[in-house]
User: Which sequence fits this backbone?
């Protein structure tokens, strides 16, 4: 660094430190299209209902919980996560029912639907971070190498956070013939990483693209975006409806609970299966991630208010992103499903299943879990049916941990 470098504005210095993993900001015709979106107001994309995207509560209070030695131990499995051993062989034959789902961990799901293969939020990297040496690290290996997965018709991205949009994974997929469906603005990242614009469908909420007879509709979600230190809200976040001639599925991406699930269900449902975010929740950010109770309520809303189809829990078990215990999302979702009379699938990472067939329901996480207190059982008994407990801590300032979620 020269003496003149000290005179550069801070923003310029920070921009020079941005590695390729940070992606690219929308510009030109893409930015003009963003400005025309009805969901882009006062210079940023807006949520369908109000949401606080910066964590509430005291930074010191959160740090005491998050970095406490015993608390940190609760957020890790006590042994080796049982990744399914025969994923490749199991995927060799087409699904008998026409619909098969394979949870690869976190929010990554391979959906084989009516003869087509859709890959949601693929993350094969070791860390969800812009840096290879820091950030949340995988708690289990990927079930199989990305190259062994075989041809994929469409890659669907829900938003641009690091645990959903992974540079090395996208780079590998860019070298194939697959098509990408992404929310408005996210295409800027993909183009920088080698995906041709001709192989992208970049959609605003309620827009639909059709690929090989499968329709893909970007639907609203309650979350936020950003891969850098500054969050301009210039890339959209979305949930997704994917419909073939015979089957319909839904992927929530990351979202807080909001009444719009009922509208999505009324227009596009009911669904044979939903993939619902039920992990990385906290009282510090109640508006942008769902608890398992809220996730169950979202599924029921999507199905018209009654149990229907199969719920596949996602966004848990793979990365340590929140203060809750590692196994808590699985255990709480199991309770919520039993209370609602709703079928829930609990596959090991890499274990394919058909929603119309026999479901994996064994609580495989229990032998790897520290003792759980089950606080939600007391909460639900006291509060009755509803979207789950709200924030317990009052807003006492901003705690900016966006990059950790």
Assistant:
């Amino acid at each position: 660094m020269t003496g003149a470098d000290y005179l550069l504005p801070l923003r310029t210095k920070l921009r020079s430190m941005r590695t390729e993993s940070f992606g690219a900001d929308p510009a030109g015709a893409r930015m003009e299209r963003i400005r025309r979106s009805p969901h882009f107001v006062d210079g940023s994309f807006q949520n369908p209902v109000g949401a606080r995207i910066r964590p509430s509560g005291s930074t010191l209070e959160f740090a005491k919980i998050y970095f406490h030695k015993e608390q940190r131990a609760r957020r890790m499995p006590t042994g080796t996560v049982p990744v399914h051993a025969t994923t490749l062989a199991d995927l060799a034959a087409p699904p008998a029912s026409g619909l098969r789902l394979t949870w690869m961990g976190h929010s990554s799901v391979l959906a084989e639907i009516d003869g087509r293969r859709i890959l949601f939020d693929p993350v094969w990297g070791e860390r969800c971070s812009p840096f290879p040496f820091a950030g949340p690290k995988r708690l289990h290996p990927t079930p199989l190498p990305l190259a062994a997965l075989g041809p994929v018709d469409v890659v669907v991205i829900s938003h641009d956070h690091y645990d959903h949009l992974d540079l090395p994974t996208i780079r590998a997929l860019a070298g194939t013939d697959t098509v990408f469906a992404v929310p408005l603005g996210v295409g800027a990242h993909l183009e920088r990483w080698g995906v041709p614009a001709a192989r992208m469908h970049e959609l605003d909420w309620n827009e639909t693209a059709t690929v090989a007879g499968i329709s893909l509709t970007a639907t609203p979600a309650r979350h936020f975006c950003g891969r850098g230190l500054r969050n301009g809200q210039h890339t959209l976040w979305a949930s997704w409806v994917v419909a073939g001639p015979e089957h319909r599925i839904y992927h929530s991406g990351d979202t807080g609970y909001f009444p719009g699930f009922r509208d999505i269900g009324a227009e596009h449902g009911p669904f044979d299966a939903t993939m619902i975010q039920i992990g990385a929740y906290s009282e510090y950010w109640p508006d942008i991630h769902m608890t398992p109770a809220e996730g169950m309520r979202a599924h029921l809303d999507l199905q018209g208010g009654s149990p229907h189809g199969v719920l596949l829990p996602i966004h848990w078990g793979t990365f340590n992103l929140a203060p809750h215990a590692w196994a808590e999302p699985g255990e709480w979702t199991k309770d919520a499903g039993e209370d609602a009379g709703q079928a829930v699938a609990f596959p090991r990472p890499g274990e394919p299943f058909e929603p119309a067939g026999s479901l994996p329901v064994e609580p495989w996480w229990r032998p790897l879990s520290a003792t759980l207190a089950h606080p939600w059982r007391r909460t639900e008994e006291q509060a009755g049916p509803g979207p789950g407990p709200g924030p317990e801590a009052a807003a006492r300032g901003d705690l900016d941990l966006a990059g950790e979620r």
Remarks:
- The first strand starts at residue 40 and ends at 41.
- Residues 1-8, 10-16, 384-405 have pLDDT under 50 and may be disordered.
- The first helix runs from residue 10 to 16.
- The chain has eleven helices and 15 strands.
